[in-house]
Design a protein that fits this description.
- This protein is of the alpha+beta class and 414 residues long.
- It has three domains: 164 residues, no CATH class; 85 residues, no CATH class; 101 residues, no CATH class.
- The protein contains 14 helices and ten strands.
- Helix 8 packs across helix 10, helix 11 runs antiparallel to helix 12 and helix 12 runs antiparallel to helix 13.
- The longest helix has 26 residues.
């Protein structure tokens, strides 16, 4: 008798828990990711003397786990969850997941499987969650807790233990029986029954359109370029324009300027024998060459940058002469800063205001300068040709210097 009484008491406690479970269930909480606000469900692993009143009830993470399990059970599925899946919404490790699962021991039947196969799928190290089977007294029927709720979800299921005994309450629903009896009466009273000739067709939900193309669709897509009539070599694409320079900078990730790219392309066209069927193919190839280029993009970012292999002997000689002229003129301007006289100031004005070649020839052949009254005598080693406009410009520069401000005439003496 003591065993039967104990079973009856446990069934009454579990049934009380289930009734609370359904009474606090919200209608909106029918989806997998919805949080079911069951704040008053007692946890199974309570401490003897809990520190806080909150320790009596399910934790937030246990409530989230319960909502996922109930959603799957309502769809008629067998629920197998492993720790990796549970941690996606509990955000804790294996040991804490075990404590969370233990909170649901009074609400669900929980069993652990090292390996189990269901519907051809193998589950490893998983927990199986199922409905809590309640044996009411000595009755042989076993009621399904969630199924009972689905048939009686519009009724209040909270049981007041002080006023009623759980054995006296009929938890079964006679809704289906009453509806069947009502249908039979209507059929017997009616003489003819009209059925629809064509069955009703339910609208099928259209599948979601795929935003990203599949691999087969990508391979089937044909990209057509503006191809040349005949394959062209590297020299055909020289010189590059500003649009080509912007594309190459973007694809290569190197900040070479247009002049540097043209010099590199011209040098490669003399050494590399490569042909291209389209401009896009050339851009793709040359961008890879620039990405591996060893020259520094900052040091080569000059308009006068050149590669010696691209120049002839005559052009190289001209470049050398130009460099010598620039060095000489820079040196003349620097002397005007360190040794400030009327003569050095005039030389610096000529080096800065006149064309480099004209200024170089004048300064190289200049012997000395002498001021006589309002005339400035310029003694030269060799004759230097000046245009009339250049002679006027030279007089202006002479007059702009403090010591030569009274000069109104320049006399060249060879």
């Amino acid at each position: 008798m003591s065993l039967a009484l104990q079973i009856e008491q446990e069934a009454q406690i579990n049934q009380d828990q289930l009734c609370k479970l359904y009474s606090f269930k919200e209608e909106k909480a029918r989806y997998r990711k919805s949080y079911i606000d069951w704040d008053k469900i007692k946890r199974a692993n309570q401490k003897i003397k809990p520190i806080r009143q909150k320790s009596f009830f399910l934790s937030d993470k246990a409530g989230k786990l319960l909502s996922v399990i109930i959603a799957k059970l309502l769809r008629g599925e067998r629920v197998f969850l492993n720790h990796k899946y549970i941690s996606t919404f509990t955000l804790v490790e294996r040991r804490q997941n075990i404590r969370i699962i233990e909170e649901l021991a009074d609400i669900l039947d929980i069993s652990y499987h090292n390996s189990i196969t269901h519907n051809g799928k193998k589950y490893r190290y998983s927990y199986e969650f199922s409905y809590k089977q309640q044996n009411l007294g000595n009755t042989a029927c076993v009621e399904n807790s969630v199924a009972t709720f689905m048939s009686q979800q519009n009724d209040s299921l909270y049981i007041d233990k002080e006023n009623k005994n759980i054995e006296d309450i009929d938890l079964g629903s006679n809704f289906l029986q009453n509806s069947e009896n009502k249908k039979l009466k209507e059929i017997s009273n009616s003489e003819t029954i009209k059925f629809p000739k064509t069955p009703l067709k339910h609208k099928k939900r259209l599948p979601n359109q795929r935003k990203k193309a599949t691999n087969a669709e990508v391979k089937a897509k044909i990209i057509r370029f503006n191809q040349y009539k005949a394959p062209e070599n590297l020299a055909y694409h020289y010189p590059l324009n500003k649009e080509d320079c912007a594309k190459l900078q973007s694809k290569s990730g190197r900040e070479f300027i247009l002049n540097t790219m043209n010099e590199i392309l011209l040098d490669m066209s003399k050494r590399v024998d490569r042909t291209f069927c389209s401009k896009a193919q050339f851009i793709s190839y040359f961008a890879k060459c620039l990405a591996g280029e060893k020259r520094d993009a900052v040091k080569t970012a000059k308009d006068n940058f050149y590669i010696k292999a691209n120049k002839t002997i005559e052009e190289l000689k001209e470049i050398v002469v130009t460099q010598e002229i620039e060095q000489y003129l820079n040196k003349t301007e620097q002397e005007a800063i360190t040794n400030r006289t009327d003569e050095t100031q005039l030389k610096a004005r000529v080096a800065n205001k006149f064309l480099p070649l004209t200024a170089y020839n004048f300064l190289k052949n200049l012997n000395f300068i002498r001021k006589i009254s309002n005339v400035l005598e310029i003694h030269l080693l060799n004759s230097v040709s000046f245009t009339p406009s250049e002679e006027i410009r030279l007089l202006w520069e002479v007059q702009s210097i403090g010591g030569y401000s009274e000069i109104n005439k320049i006399k060249f003496i060879i």
